[in-house]
Each structure stands twice: as structure tokens, then as C-alpha cells.
Design brief:
This protein is an alpha/beta fold and 223 residues long. Strand 5 and strand 6 form a beta hairpin.
């Protein structure tokens, strides 16, 4: 007796074939598949845009950012350190253009952004944060974006919080132990600021906030 393949089963078979072809061509890696399979269903929904809400992240402020006219991505962290390093109580010496030059979104002079500040309400992983940022269609601007937030809006940042500027894991600098490091600026009630590097594999708690960049003005049709 012939087996009748249902529409869902046929679709699944087609997706499996397509996925296998992408693996063979190097467009998808086994690590990608393992990561996706390890997500909760709610996280998969957020990543695919099915839902953009997540009670673990609360919007507390939106900032307006204008990329300076003299901004140069290749030398931004050098020029920022020269201008502002003395203002920080602590400044990690590994925050350099060489280490963090591979930002996913490389800023350009004159660009305007809205930066949504989301407070973390309960302990989350870096993977949780990345899923949420993708659900917000956030632009990942790394250490360079964090430096502009400090330069232009540090007085508006709620104190006793750390402000994390994520990037894709593969674009984050790896230290001597092979651990990916995540830039964040800490603002303390006494007026002290820290420019630190956290660890991608460590949990993030409710004293931290995400910096979620988005275009201030939608692109015109055809752009």
C-alpha cells in the first residue's frame, strides 16, 4: 500500500533538503543549527519577528543620537580615548580600534539614531539579549555606538546601571582565554563612569540595560 505524504510532511522534507544544501555550501554551519535548536520556542518566535514583547526587558528611556561630522570608524575608539579617557574612573585598555573594528553596523557621519534603553528585569544570557535585540530590529553598533551614547547623552542615563552595546558574537574581540568580550558603560550615582568589557558567556542581571539602536528616520522608498 502506497503511503500518502501530507502537505506538512512534504514541506518539512523540502526544508530539510534545503537546509542540507546550505550546510554543504557553507551558508549554515552545524553550530548555527545547534544554537537554534537550543532556543526556547518563545525565543524562536522573537527571533523570527512573531512577537516583539519580552517581559524580561523594559523600555526606560529613548535617546537621540547624531553621529559627529568628523566621525571615522577606523579610528573612532582612538580619538574617543584621547578626548575622554581621563573622565572615566576606569577605562579598559583593550577597547581599541584593532580589537573592536569589526562592528556589524559601522556608523557614518551625520546619521541620526534613536537609542532605546531597555532595563533587564531578570537574569538573562547573552543569547537571550541577542534574540531580543534582533526582535527589535536593532542595529548592532558595538563599542563605537556606546562611545557616542556616553559623549552625547551620559547625563540622561539613569545612574547605578550598566549600558551594554552588543554585537554579533563573531565580531566581538576574543581575549587571551578565547572568551568574547562585550563593551558596556557603567554610570554610578557619584558621577563616576566606567568603560568596561563583560563576557559574552556570563549572565546579565537587573543592574544592566541594553542599548538598542534604530534609524531615527525610516529609509525612503527604493533606498
Amino acid at each position: 500500500m502506497d503511503t500518502i505524504i501530507g502537505a506538512d510532511a512534504a514541506k518539512l522534507a523540502g526544508l530539510q533538503i534545503d537546509q542540507l544544501q546550505k550546510v554543504r555550501k557553507g551558508r549554515i554551519t552545524l553550530e548555527h543549527i545547534e544554537w537554534f535548536n537550543g532556543l526556547l520556542r518563545t525565543e524562536r518566535d522573537k527571533l523570527s519577528g512573531v512577537s516583539r514583547s519580552d517581559p524580561r526587558f523594559k523600555l526606560v528611556k529613548t535617546l537621540d543620537i547624531l553621529v559627529p561630522a568628523d566621525y571615522v570608524h577606523a579610528t573612532r575608539l582612538t580619538s574617543f580615548a584621547e578626548a575622554h579617557r581621563s573622565e572615566f574612573y576606569y577605562y579598559d585598555s583593550n577597547l581599541t580600534d584593532q580589537n573592536f573594528g569589526r562592528a556589524t553596523t559601522q556608523l557614518k557621519p551625520g546619521q541620526r539614531f534613536k537609542v532605546d534603553v531597555f532595563q533587564i528585569k531578570e537574569t538573562v544570557t547573552s543569547e537571550n539579549c541577542m534574540v531580543f535585540l534582533h526582535s527589535q530590529k536593532a542595529l548592532l553598533v558595538g563599542a563605537q555606538g556606546a562611545s557616542i551614547v556616553y559623549e552625547q547623552e551620559r547625563k540622561e542615563l539613569p545612574k547605578n546601571r550598566g549600558y551594554i552595546s552588543f554585537d554579533e558574537k563573531e565580531n566581538l574581540w576574543q581575549d587571551a582565554d578565547g572568551r568574547h568580550r562585550v563593551p558596556h558603560i557603567d554610570a554610578h550615582s557619584g558621577g563616576a563612569f566606567y568603560f568596561r568589557l563583560g563576557y559574552f558567556g556570563d549572565p546579565w542581571r537587573d543592574v544592566c540595560c541594553l542599548l538598542s539602536f534604530r534609524d531615527a528616520e525610516p529609509a525612503a522608498a527604493g533606498e
